[in-house]
Amino acid sequence: MPLWQELPLLLVVAFCLAVLIRTFLMQAFYIPSGSMEDTLQVGDRVLVNKVVYEFRDPTRGEVIVFKGPDNWAPENGNDTNAGFFSKLGRTVGDLVGISQPGEKDFIKRVIGVPGDRVSCCDVEGRIYVNGVPIDEPYVVRNSSLETTADKSCNSRKFAEITVEPGMLFVMGDHRLVSQDSRCQGQVPIDDVIGKAMVVALPFDRWGSVARQDVFDKVPDPALAAGTATPAPAPELALVAPVLLGAALLRRRITRARATQQG
Questions:
Q1: Where is the Peptidase S26 domain (predicted)?
Q2: Which pTM value belongs to this model?
Q3: So where are the chain's domains?
């Protein structure tokens, strides 16, 4: 088959692969605002892992992309009155993960998980999670520590809140310009799209978007409250070999029966 006949087929295959990858595995997101500076800059394109949270929930310190709840005001400046061709181009670009994000897509850092008690700040401007002060070297510290009358996100200071079941408390690294859980409320875990993995573009900013280990010293909510919780992980570790052995034995028996019948 001549190349000119193969080219359309190759383009269709490439497009379908891009859509599949974007839908189920990985997606590129454009950073439209300075709310995550200096970790992420305006114009960065970040690759987001869309699979990881199928197996576990987000943890403190991770940077996530999520669909903002209905009450969240958008941070980017997408033109909702754009023309037909502009909207068409944006739709196609969104399918393959190269367009700017929708006005309801947000990228923030997870500060609190269900059951956590979060507040800010001490005299050094540190947040508290379950009674533990957190030193955040990645935060831009140019916002006021005073509580504003309108309870806006311009101030870092807020009273203690408890993260509800199935929800996350998220904040931007540039607290002065970030519209986040301080003023917009908590985020449902079900609305999380994925975990930010690497800055892919521009090339001079290539690098991983690592989870911050400053949250490792935070105790689980139940431990912080002084209550006991069951520890299913060790039990599962003991039972797992038995379950695996039983599954392998069952497979061998099934194969043996099939061989005898054949």
A1: 6-199
A2: 0.71
A3: 28-77+103-229, 231-262
